[in-house]
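DM from R.C. (forwarded with permission)

"hey, sorry to bug you on a friday — could you get me a structure for this? deadline for the figure draft is monday and I only need the backbone to look sensible"
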Amino acid sequence: MIKVVMDCFGGDGSPRANADGAIAALGKNADLYMILSGDEAQIKEALSGKKYPAERLEILHAPTVIGCDEKPTEAIRAKRDSSMMAAAELLRTDETVAGMVSVGSTGALIAATTLRVGRLPGVMRPAFCPILPTMTGGIVGICDSGAVVDCSPEMLKQFAVMGSVYLQSAFGIESPRAALLNIGTESEKGDKLRKETYPLLEQLEGVNFVGNMESRDLLTGKYDLIVCDGFSGNVLIKTTEGACLEMLKMLKKNIYSSWKYKLGALLQKKMFSQIKEFMNYQNYGGSVILGARKTVVKGHGSSDARAIEVCIDQVCRAENARMNEKISEALSGHTAS
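My reply, with the result:
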């Protein structure tokens, strides 16, 4: 049985989307046990009238919520009775609980993960690793995408190791092609951080480093893992998401501008639906926090039930793959200087 605790508040659709996502995950995974953290009355209302295996779901009462506008370190200390902190504390103290899902404050979740749940031995800083689809039908991971804004070369080296293990163990990618995000593909390109990191990755055993990557190649399918600092990674992923969404809006606007375009779109309705699904981030879950002692997944604040269901799947996938154990093993041979 895989136990997952979920922070049921902090998202745009909370707690209903969280409850619906948990029910969907329970319905397809008989080995899953869910613990929903948050205001008990509101969670019960969200569950009301729904069919679910009650013997595999429980509620952890936590009456307050950490807002996205609150200072993370202050909030996790002042609001120990919040849905997020109650979930993090249970994850820390109960060894039977495998992982945690939250769509709440990113800063607070990173702080709670680092200060309460703890890091794996040897990990300098935990990192986000979201997954995006590629044009070739595969996936690409970005590590880091916002957890560590200011990085050292040694941190990026660890991100390469952790991200590679994640893709190998959880997704079965035999030898993930890891690239360093840069302003050009030439080895001498970049700022001081990139120039110092490049030779470290080039000499790194156990990581299939293939050189630098320019941001325009993110979704081409040429790479499996993009290594970057949290600032650059966050800009990369949000720019990509934003560009895709605006392209869809422009396409829709143009289609509705002419009856000829409408007719053509009608004939290609299935194709447009497939493109829309491909670009829908809700289908790809959240960002796994690599380097934490237990698996923590951060979902988008606007996650719907489907996205939350996928976030829960990500915890189960990591647990079944013994991801954290394998990351510890891999890092043991790469101690920071």
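R.C.: lifesaver. The domain at 1-123+291-321+333-337 is CATH 3.40.718.10 (Isopropylmalate Dehydrogenase).
me: no worries. The mean pLDDT is 92.
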